[in-house]
Task: structure prediction
Amino acid sequence: MRGNIIKYPRDNIDTDVIIPGQYLKVHDYAELATHAMEGLDPDFHSKVKEGDFILSGKNFGCGSSREHAPIALSHCGVKAILALSFARIFYRNSVDGAFLLPIEIDQDAYDGISEGDEIDIDISKNEIKNITKNQTYKMKPFSEIIGKIIAAGGLFKYKPDQD
Amino acid sequence: MNIVEKILARGSGKSSVAPDDVVFADVDKVMMHDVSGPGVIKVFDKLKKQGISVDKLWDPTKVWVAEDHFVPSADKMSAENIVKLSNFTKQYGIEKHFKYGMGQYGICHTISHEEAMVMPGDVYVGGDSHTNTTGALGAFACGLGHTDIAYVLLHGNIWFKVPETYYFKLNGKLPDHVMAKDVILKIIGDIGNDGGAYRTMQFGGSGIDEMSVESRLTLCNMTTEAGAKNGIVEPDQKVVDYLSKRGATNFNLVTGDSDAEYSKIFEYESSEMEPMISKPFSPDNTCVVGEAPSVELDKSYIGSCTGAKYEDLEAAAKILKGRKVKIRTEVLPAAISIYQRAMENGLLKIFLDAGVTVGPPTCGACCGAHMGVLAKDEICISTTNRNFPGRMGHIESQTYLSSPMVAAASAVTGKITDPRDLL
Result:
């Protein structure tokens, strides 16, 4: 999976800035997408392209349980978030709803990858390649259940009885 | 096993579980509200298009519904969501739907304990991050998103990774001017916004034994702000009395074994606790009130599942009695039952005499949705739970989190104030 990086080099990007509370009443996915990252980056919509990845620090998606957050980002075209760590509800919403991939990275990848870099993510090898800078990093492997739900295409397509 | 491991083992039909085991646990109660409900309905619509049957819920008697975020309906879209929610509960035969304007209603987490919707030992999930609150009754209470709640509604179970447990031991009774809110702000300041991430935060010790059930609810409520999967207190006689007053007597008290394991133990002395605040823009950005910056406040907000239970209003009233507020102050009891008790016991008169606006139960301004949101550059002291940028309104507004006592004292002076200065 290939895409370009939009980098927010900070920790604790919370759901209130990913999709502010006033839009919690909105359930139209396309409309939610128009407000993504409104609380943090007014230029997000001029930057984001189909297939992009967001890179950020620790505890990405902390705050509320609103599934609006991964929905809004994925409907802008964001396919994966690369972060040092994730808040738990954002993480499982992303995976169980099959909206985007939450990829845990290490400090080297966080420091080494810059805004605009072209990245190739290979989850079968747990590898992240920086095409622009010709560097390779390891991603943290998904836990068994997360890997299976991602492979199935979301929680509703995952059949636990067949394990 | 500790209490959470025992509840999850029972829920998943296993004799024992350990941290990091992945289980599918049967759910005893599930909650959704006027934000997560329409989100779940949207998931149901998607499933229908994929040919997955959504004709029947697994057990409508185990489902309950609250109206809290955008009520009284903030605008046309919010009103439509309430209609959608009502149609859904009617279609699927869900009887426990707490509608505003029809007697008891309120913030979902407040209804969970005021109406005894959740029992000790339950596996309880809700479509809201502060579902953790109800762990104070001795349940495994955990927040989930729309897809997961839809899954629970159709299957009756959901996957969990069994969390490791951090045990927070509080020694001794809290001083009169310190509330449970101060304790949890202190803890979050110490361990950080992700200090409890993916874990259980369990509270115990003589300080917790001394605490009311409502104070324990405040502690568990804000485990969410430390990233915890759930917060929990082992149930005792106080919980039994609290629930029996609300008509619930049929439950089993689950407690941890004597050799229960905790991955880390933190110890706090009540006598060393002080009134605390979280400064903008993060719950873990804490300091004692004595070291608060000298800012001119525009507003004091006493509301939400965190800070508008009966005990919270009582604490605020103690400060506001016979005084006048210097800044705009709003009190929004978190449920109608609390509103009513506040009326019967004279609290509402104290608030109104002080110049406070008393509003209806709603999540409203806490999440920046409606009914009291902040303008650009406005500064608010609030009994709520989060203060990220834009949380309570404009992205350039500021929120300080505090206990109801500190919020009330600050309402009187217009500056962040230690309640001891007024008591």
